[in-house]
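User: I'm putting together a teaching handout on how multi-component assemblies are represented. Below are the sequence lines for each component of a complex, exactly as they appear in our records. Could you produce the 3D structure of the whole assembly as structure tokens, so the students can see both representations side by side? Please keep the chain order the same as the input.
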Amino acid sequence: MQILLKRATQHFLLLLLLSGQQSFAEFSEQSVLSANTPKGISIDIFSEIAPLDINRIHSWQLRLTDMQGSPVSNAQIELVGGMPEHDHGLPTQPQITAETEAGIYLLEGVRFHMPGNWQLDIKLSYESDSAGLTTETIKIEFQL
Ligand SMILES: [Cu+2]
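Assistant: Of course. Below is the structure of the complete assembly, with chains in the same order as your input.
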């Protein structure tokens, strides 16, 4: 009985640990997509699902860095996308819900519903030391 109780406690603690971890999404170590804006901002995208897959709703982490490699904080980010060859957009409307660390943004609600060529247009507005408020749109193309 005592052994059973001990086991149950261990299991309970393990569950507690595991459930605690679930509140923190795990993102890929390598970026799944990346691009640079004409003005030298790098965007690196890390995904909960890597490699990217269809029909699974998931989150991304977007990392913005400037030419010096410093994080770009307080950026406004809008993402739209679709399949140019099929003339349709994304099946969901992914939203930036938080800047979790300096220059690191959480994008929730990402889903792709078909294999083929996809395109994302990411509009960034950020404060630049040299140019003030700057808006750029960056296009990322990839295949699923
Ligand atoms: Cu399509």
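A couple of points students might notice: Residues 83, 86, 88, 114, 116 surround copper (II) ion (CB under 6 Å). The CA atoms of residues 120 and 136 lie 13 Å apart.
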